[in-house]
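Sample pair:
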Amino acid sequence: MKSSESERPLSPCVLLCTLDERGVCLGCHRTLAEISRWSLMTAAEQWQLIDELTTRKARNAATMPPAKGD
């Protein structure tokens, strides 16, 4: 959780670096452009993206087909 907007968040990378057919990482849900720009973003931009990723992750989980064996 953010303690201050001026403090940078940790990278959302979870070391599952695989892009889907839309160019979105299956691990952190960022686009390749967002991944490459991460270190150039301001702290505010990074926090905004973190907020967006929470929504993306939930949306992607709701639309994913069940895993084999389920």
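The mean pLDDT is 88.
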